[in-house]
Amino acid sequence: MRKIFALLSLVVVLSMALAACGGGAPAATEAPATGAEQPAATEAPAAATEAPAPGAVRENVLRVNTGTYPDIIDPQKSSFVNEIAHLNKVYMGLTTLNEKLETIPGAAESFTFNDDATELVFVLKPGLLYSDGSVLNAKRFEFAFQRNIDPATAGEYASITDEIVGAPEWRAADTTAADYDPEVFKAALGVKASHADGAACVDYEDAECNTLTMNFSKPAPYFATIAGIWVGYPAKEENIAEGGDIWWTSSKYQVGNGPFVWQSVEPFVKSVFVPNANYVGAGIPTYTLEFSYITDSAVAFEAYKNGEFDVVASAAEDLPVIDADADLTAQHVKYAGSCTTKIQFSLHPTWNGQPNPLADPKVREAFAYAYNAEGWVTDVDGGLGSATWSWIPPGYPGYDAASPLKFDVEAAKAALAAASEPFNSAEKLNAMGLKMTYAASARNQARHEWLAANYKENLGVDLALDPVEPTTFTALQKDPDTYPLFSRGGWCADYPDPQNWLSVYWRSDTTFANRFGYNNPAFDELVNKGDVETDPTARMEYYAQAQQILLADIPAAFGYNSLNHYLVKPWVTGFNTTPQDGTYPGDVTPWTITIDTMMP
Fold first, then answer.
1. pLDDT 10s digits, 282-336
2. Which CATH number fits domain 95-234: 1.10.3660.10, 3.90.1570.10, 3.90.76.10, 3.90.870.40?
3. Which residues pair with 110 in a beta bridge?
4. Does the bond joining 434 to the residue before it have cis omega, within 30 degrees of 0?
């Protein structure tokens, strides 16, 4: 994904990205909320739901606490996991993932590459409709990709479609130039909707407009998977225009083709989703879905125990209570996750009006060696993760356990002593007033107190604690000028390919690398070669070499891989668990879930 993470705080759940994103990731107390203007609760027409069965003891509703309310819920602008978790309920891309995380047709009936993977043709399923019954044709998907690339959109994931002919040129265009004309760039863009015979599409009501052709400036053998992520979700152009800059805050405008209809939203409190009868995926959900936004995991845990939620992410602080209770232990679901969390460094030349010590590789090396990742997993995370010194997590293509990093206090001190002036001692760093920024909550306070104590004990460096509002924390991370010196965050897979972990996140021209200032031309050259290589073995070798360069650069202190860990009531059954789940078990294939309304 994801998911971002652009993702934050995997201990409780993750926020992005991914980011993907991608996601992906549990919705943590550190996952920031929005600071944008919010409307009152809004309503959209509801899809029909079944009446309760005679004798039912509960409603046919899945009640999930997702943590922080999303910062933005716009397909072409979102990047954090909690944002994507909402979008993928309302929309479906040209492709999608199955329970094995294989790329399969979504809104498309088929997709076909040419021999050198420079052209990709999608044919839509016949009779596609939005949840409101209006026509969904290829021109809607053409608009989605155009909007993702359009510099006026300023999307978090705009660079992920740079393989498309004309995309990087348009994305980099100066929209204030006197001769700027977006229509010229659209005409040159390698994304074209048409009829099956190649005839031009008329408009959004043209039901015969069923083919989308993508042409790439280089081979892009992975692009069928990218075509299924949120940047290609077909939000309606007219709804975006009518709703303006905050269109996405109203469920009225969130009309999609996904498994659910967003019936209502009360920002920061609750969203309600009902089944979409026009969904053409593998199955239509049979239950209503409710997302709540309690950011304090302790409060969410009590609500779960009181029967107010059916699913919450578990937290390390609650493990003693869970382990001491047979019912809670039986309800505790744990399985492999898709995320890597790190101690994030700002690599920009200056910080707080002074030279940035983390711009010195030796200082970064010192902080990486001084981080007791195993101690974190044991003492703070309660075993709900696994320590790592690499970037791509186990179980994903490209995982490589070999890393120059490790926990080594003496090596950390030696690296700091070898740093340049004026950063080569703990005393000099302490005089600079270094600080670590995070989203304010009682549990995050305890976590960051642990980290501060870790660096004080192992390196002699004082890191001042800098708690900020979750909304502020998100905003700080999205702007290179305000990116925190130290913070916790990471990345969850948007899709199972090393290109997503390396090219999308660390290549110097991406949104994410620009945020924290990573730039290595040798790394860029290798991932660029891997991106266009059609031979699978050679492609993986390019990525393996690139990851070793990344690890040697130490742009962060890699810390731990996630587990998905949730408390799930026994009446919630039928869910498929995958590493990509970002909000609750079965998130990737929600139509398989059943609520037993008769179980007491």
1. 999 999 999 999 999 999 999 999 999 999 999 989 999 999 999 999 999 998 8
2. 3.90.76.10
3. 123
4. no
Task: State the pLDDT at residue 580.
Answer: 87
Domain boundaries 338-562, corresponding CATH code: 3.10.105.10
Spatial separation of the C-alpha atoms in residues 82 and 339, rounded to whole Å: 14
CB 466, CB 333: distance < 8 Å = no
Q: Which tens digit of pLDDT belongs to each residue from 464-488?
A: 999 999 879 988 998 999 999 999 9
Query: Which residues does 156 contact at the CB level (< 8 Å), separation at least 6?
Result: 6, 17, 19, 77, 78, 79, 478, 511
Q: Where are the extended beta strands (E) located within 188-235?
A: 191-194, 211-215
CA 86 vs CA 42, 232, 256, 260, 291: distances in Å: 16, 15, 12, 10, 9
DSSP label of 575: P
**Phi and psi angles of residue 135, each rounded to the nearest 5 degrees, phi first:** -65, 140
Confidence (pLDDT) at 48: 44
Q: How far apart are CA 465 and CA 495, in angstroms?
A: 34
**HSE, side-chain direction, 13 A CA sphere, residue 502:** 34
Give the model confidence (pLDDT) of 128-171 as tens digits: 999 999 999 999 999 999 999 999 999 988 999 999 999 999 99
Residue (of 40, 586, 105, 48) closest to 269 by Cα position? 40
**CA 189 to CA 70: how far, in whole Å?**
31
Residues 82 and 26: their CA atoms lie apart, in Å, by: 8
Q: What residues pair up with 439 in beta bridges, in sequence order?
A: 468
Q: For the ranges 247-261, 381-395, 405-419, 540-554, which has the lowest average pLDDT?
A: 381-395
Hey, which residues does 135 pair with through a beta bridge? 129
* pLDDT for residue 52: 65
Q: What is the tens place of the pLDDT at every residue in 235-277? A: 999 999 999 999 999 999 999 999 999 999 999 999 999 999 9
- Spatial separation of the C-alpha atoms in residues 254 and 250, rounded to whole Å: 7
Ramachandran sector of residue 596 (left: φ over 0; alpha: ψ -120 to 50; beta: rest): beta
Query: What count of residues does the chain have?
Result: 600
Q: How far apart are the first and last CA of the chain?
A: 37
Residue 436 Cα to chain centre, angstroms: 23
What single-letter amino acid sits at 97? L
Q: Please, which residues have CB within 8 angstroms of residue 392's CB and are 6 or more apart in sequence?
A: 340, 398, 399, 400, 498, 501, 502, 547
**CB-based contacts of 501: which residues, under 8 Å, 6+ apart?**
391, 392, 396, 398, 491, 493, 547
On whether the CB atoms of residues 554 and 364 are closer than 8 A, the answer is yes
| Element counts in the chain: helices (H) and strands (E) | 20, 23
> What confidence score (pLDDT) does residue 50 get?
54
Domain layout of the chain by residue ranges: 20-89+246-334+566-595, 95-234, 338-562
Helix locations, 252-351, DSSP H? 297-305, 319-323, 326-331
pLDDT, tens only, 194-227: 999 999 999 999 999 999 999 999 999 999 999 9
Is the preceding peptide bond at 168 cis, omega within 30 degrees of 0?
no
Mean pLDDT of the chain: 90
- CATH superfamily label, 20-89+246-334+566-595: Periplasmic binding protein-like II (3.40.190.10)
pLDDT at 381: 87
d(CA 561, CA 270): 30
